[in-house]
Amino acid sequence: MNKGAVSPERVVVLRPSARRTVGGLMGFHCHGPSMLPTLKTGDFLVVAPYKSHPVRRGDIVVFRIPGSNRLIAHRVASIRKTVVRVRGDNNNLTDPWLLEVKDLLGRVIRRERNRSVRRLTGGAGGDLYARAVRGLAEARKSLFRLMRPAYLWASEKGLVRRLLPFRLKTRVLAVKRPQGTELQVLAGRRLIARRPARSGTWLVRRPFKLLIDARSLSDNTVVSVRRPTDGESKK
Predict the structure, then answer these.
(1) Model's pTM, two decimal places?
(2) In the chain, beta strands by DSSP E
């Protein structure tokens, strides 16, 4: 594998923030799904340089991809002498890069999301948390594999949609991307389905196939058009 190659779905990309920090701390905004549910797109991260603080397995660290200017925030999966391997909490595999301790910009100590502020645990506590997150994700996948035939049958027949005393309120957005226009279905602020550019197939997030009929959606249902943010534009 190319040591610098990894899919966009497997990283959390950071961009420096204009917000002020004190005491030598750094501030970043993040974009990407690889650290869910710990970090999500739009979170503001406060990063502390390591200085004399030891790097520990379980820390969420900030580093540049070797041979690139992109900044990434992932959790330390292992340390051998001065070599560090990292991994996203939402990733099944360890990242391909072999990092040096000296190349780490610092560790994420705080996450701000909307009006919520949370200190992030590193070390043994952070490692245990990440293992629990992945264990729960695998359990959900196993459960869905067992339930998938019934889920697909119920969504195809529209049983849940007919039994609900209300209709899910949705809106469709058209997002301009370099490769064309992507359609997105939102329920409130939650993205529940998308039709990628140059594709005729709707991708509906679980369990929303039970609540909406993607076949009834069309270009005529678009209610607004927006352009992607800087972080989204490359997707």
Answers:
(1) 0.71
(2) 13-16, 26-31, 44-48, 60-64, 71-80, 83-87, 99-100, 106-113, 116-119, 171-177, 180-187, 190-195, 203-204, 222-226
